[in-house]
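Work Package 3 (structural annotation) set out to generate three-dimensional models for the target panel prioritized at the project kickoff. During this period the team completed the workflow that converts sequence records into discrete structure tokens, so that structures can be stored uniformly alongside our sequence database. As a representative example, we reproduce one entry of 403 residues exactly as it appears in the project archive.
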Amino acid sequence: MFASQLTRKIRTFTRSLTSTCRHSNIRRFSTMETSGEVITCKAAVARGPGEPLVVEEIKVDPPKKMEVRMKVLYSSICHTDIDIWKGTNEAQRAFPRILGHEAAGIIESVGEGVTDLKKGDHVIPIFNGECGNCVYCKSEKTNLCETLRVNPMKSVMVNDGKCRFSTMDGKPIYHFLNTSTFTEYTVIDAGCAAKIDPDASLKKMSLLSCCISTGVGAAWNCANVQAGSTVAIFGLGALGLAVAEGSRVRGASTIIGVDINSEKFIKDFINPKDLGTPVHEKIREMTGGGVDYSFECAGNVDVLRESFLSTHDGWGSTVLLGIHPNPRMLPLHPMELFDGRKIIGTVFGDFKGKSQLPHLAQQCINGVLNLDEFITHELPFEKINEAFQLLLDGKSLRCVLKF
């Protein structure tokens, strides 16, 4: 696993509250009232597919009914941000846009009807929201929400179908994944903000917005990894390593990592490039017939097939976590499911974000999960394009941006 390349010193709470936007008419958050006002601040705006992000001044409207405005203190970069930034899918090309969905910060103001959050609360924005009132939210069988579920195509607010961001000359800037965290201030639905313990490190807690929750939840909630079981993880980015951490906590006896980047290693590691046989054959040989659980974190259908075949027949389970933008279908014959193997997908690790994430955050505070090694780099927000390149080059797990 990568070693941290920068110091771990965290900006104190007092400094966070007194930090200001870089515009002369913006008041200090800790001493001046900004509720109900338009705030001018810095944001990294994606102007077009693949173009470098432009750090510029934007306007952020006050939150409307059942919305909150959040001051972002830390945000990191996920491969999903990069996929949308590339604009490989025509339906995703809503530009200009503010990307970002892994973050942590403080509530600046709340809109009408919001009763469970208030100014000063420490929160994690969540892309897979929880309104708490719909048939989905009331069901114990799913963590999806009828209105606030993850939707990369959505680029406006649910309330009125409009943007809360605009350029200095009044042109709209689109939203992303219910969050849009590459900005000093963002507006999100109240159901997309999970309140956490103010004593928690916001820098570390930012990772719970996506990779940690998704990976750990896949092991705990979806697969329900048992003590003494065997696990194979295909793709050892931050998501795959979060699965490994979740499996370790559950007491898995063997955790096999599969990746073509030999720098991303864990104890039992396989690089497919070093093999003369399919990966699933090697894993079956290592484990006496296959692993109990496999996790596909690469977003590649061929890798998915290897992951599926690496599990033990009769009871093996494969969990799909990787994003598959390619239109190719699953490379499985229906009869292969008659051998007792199962395959299932998970969104946000099956966590109900608003109601269950605070407990996961507390477990991190208590040391149940180790988040330190996931943060491999830390840069000032203005260097966001450098952070993008680190992830594109495979040189970072998570690069945290400081505001």
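The domain at 214-347 is CATH 3.40.50.720 (Rossmann fold).
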